[in-house]
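Today's session is about reading a structure prediction critically. Students often jump straight to the picture, but the first step is always the sequence itself: look for stretches that repeat, for charged clusters, for runs of hydrophobic residues. Only then move on to the predicted structure, which in these notes is written as discrete structure tokens rather than atom positions. Here is the chain we will use throughout the hour.
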Amino acid sequence: MEKYLGVFIVLIVLYSCSKDKEQSRVIGVHNRPDFEELKELKLDDYYVNLLNPKFSKKEDFKGVLKSWGDFHNKVNEVLVANDFSWEIPDSSITVVNKIYFNKYGKVNYFLVNVRNENVTNEVKNKYISLLNSHLDELSIELKREGQFSQCGKVKYKNYE
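Below is the predicted structure for this chain, in token form.
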């Protein structure tokens, strides 16, 4: 009996870990089917805005800003380390993000909207694929009582 119970527990752990892994993904606004699928999840009903005063205290604001900046620095490091090319001459790339984190600061969903109009969908897809392959490295250094989200605009230096 104990042998079967141990196998059952291992299966539950493996299932829950694989489920979390499947859930984490990066989605581009330009990919309408994926974007519409994400909207149907109504994530804002389940994730609290990080800057909600009931969720983050005023005295925590400095730490929130630092962790948000550090998160985007990690994204930039991934781009640089992988010689990512935006394939346009613009000096900077503007991206609007809405990121949904679990209570430990790990990314569950990462919605991106690349605002430079000359960036092709092919390049946007490469960007999304690169982020997807590095999601384990991209977490925010915050922990909360429940899952949370944050949106914002970031400008990345274009190293072309």
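Discussion point for the tutorial: Helices lie at 2-23, 32-40, 61-81, 121-133.
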